[in-house]
């Protein structure tokens, strides 16, 4: 595996692969890698001849400077992990490479509707930052396929819409959420939690499972279901941003006639903001 930091180096390798008729898979990350990230590399390799991973903590998607500063940066350990995967190149640009004119002068991408709700409503500007950096990274790596985890389901749909709307010749593939033994979705933010909080955090997936069970039993008052779940989990120490039952295809609020649903939750526990989601298909 090769590590490159300049756009010129990356483009030169991509050019050589293209001349050889090879397809390219891409996995963008912010580093601090765990098994969930590594599974995305494996997924990309199933769909492409060569795989590029990027590591870049994108300041444009943080609306809280303290959160940005605290985000764990473990570049040496990340590269060591990637060498054990099917990754061919890891691209580790600095901020000046991604935003050479500075972030205030950077053209920004806004994806309407999907980016306005849920996490978008609670983190103003976040998805503009995501859409902008992903567009730039796509234009740098020029992949045929890109893989994103379903844990960030709203982000996954946003990027699919971005690619569709801007006619990018890239297939976006979602990969199953990887979980800890207690069911907690793997996340770089989990390390902010104490041992006790790690145990408590598993209540998130239990809440999703309980909501799914109620839906499958035919309970149709979505607002009441979510409000009761919110009250129950707040009693266990969480500060809930949202619990919502949405249409899986576009994350608009679900109606009684909708059958393909996605249950989503975002909640603060101690120092960590945790998100998770679960599919629910009704007969």
Question: Can you characterise this structure?
Answer:
- The chain is of the alpha/beta class.
- It folds into two domains: 2-175, Rossmann fold (3-Layer(aba) Sandwich); 188-275, Pantoate--beta-alanine Ligase, Chain: A,domain 2, CATH 3.30.1300.
- The chain is 39% helix and 20% strand.
- The protein contains eleven helices and nine strands.
- It has helices spanning 7-19, 35-47, 65-70, 75-82, 95-98, 119-122, 126-141, 153-165, 195-201, 203-216, 222-234, and strands at 2-4, 24-29, 50-55, 89-91, 145-149, 171-175, 239-247, 260-269, 272-281.
- The strands form two sheets. It has a six-stranded parallel beta sheet with strand order 1-4-3-2-5-6, sandwiched between helices. Strands 7-8-9 form a three-stranded antiparallel beta sheet, with helices on one face.
- Helix 7 (126-141) crosses helix 8 (153-165) and helix 10 runs antiparallel to helix 11.
- The longest helix is centred in the middle third of the chain and has 16 residues, at 126-141.
- It is globular.
């Amino acid at each position: 595996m090769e590590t490159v930091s300049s756009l010129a180096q990356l483009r030169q390798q991509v050019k050589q692969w293209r001349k050889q008729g090879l397809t390219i898979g891409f996995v963008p990350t912010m580093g601090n890698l765990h098994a969930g990230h590594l599974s995305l590399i494996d997924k990309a390799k199933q769909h492409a001849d060569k795989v590029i991973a990027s590591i870049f903590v994108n300041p444009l998607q943080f609306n809280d400077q303290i959160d940005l500063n605290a985000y764990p940066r473990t570049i040496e350990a990340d590269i060591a992990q990637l060498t054990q995967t099917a990754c061919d190149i890891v691209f580790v640009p600095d901020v000046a490479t991604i935003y050479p004119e500075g972030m205030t002068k950077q053209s920004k991408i806004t994806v309407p509707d999907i980016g306005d709700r849920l996490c978008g409503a609670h983190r103003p500007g976040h998805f503009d930052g995501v859409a902008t950096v992903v567009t730039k990274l796509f234009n740098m790596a020029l992949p045929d396929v890109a893989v994103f985890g379903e844990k960030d389901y709203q982000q996954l749909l946003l990027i699919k819409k971005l690619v569709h709307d801007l006619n990018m010749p890239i297939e976006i593939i979602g990969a199953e959420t990887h979980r800890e033994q207690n069911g907690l979705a793997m996340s770089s933010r989990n390390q902010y939690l104490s041992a006790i909080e790690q145990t408590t955090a598993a209540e998130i997936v239990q809440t999703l499972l309980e909501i799914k069970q109620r839906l499958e039993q035919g309970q149709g008052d979505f607002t009441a279901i979510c409000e009761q779940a919110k009250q129950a989990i707040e009693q266990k120490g969480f500060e809930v941003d949202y619990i919502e039952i949405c249409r899986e295809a576009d994350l608009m609020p679900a109606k009684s006639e909708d059958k393909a649903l996605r249950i989503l939750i975002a909640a603060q526990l101690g120092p960590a903001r945790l998100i998770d989601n679960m599919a629910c298909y009704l007969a």
